[in-house]
Design goal:
Blueprint lengths: L2 H22 L1 H4 L1 H7 L9 H7 L6 H12 L1
Length: 72
């Protein structure tokens, strides 16, 4: 296998793990949605309730992170 193939595989593995880690953690995956819909709330102030209340407007990444949190 060529060096280019190894580099492509390494790149794919590195970034697929980062994407999974972000989607599994609502704090990272939902930051944009939080900023858009729930910015006035402080931690412990109902952020998850706010995000779940806006569920139909959330990004797919945020929805997946919230779903994975419920499964734990």
């Amino acid at each position: 296998m060529s060096k280019l193939n190894y580099a492509a595989i390494a790149f794919a593995v590195a970034f697929s793990g980062a994407a999974f880690a972000q989607s599994a953690d609502p704090r990272g995956a939902c930051k944009t949605d939080y900023d858009k819909f729930c910015a006035g709330l402080a931690p412990g102030g109902g952020i998850l309730a706010c995000l779940n209340g806006k569920r139909d407007q959330l990004s797919a990444t945020c929805k997946a992170a919230l779903d994975s949190r419920k499964k734990k």
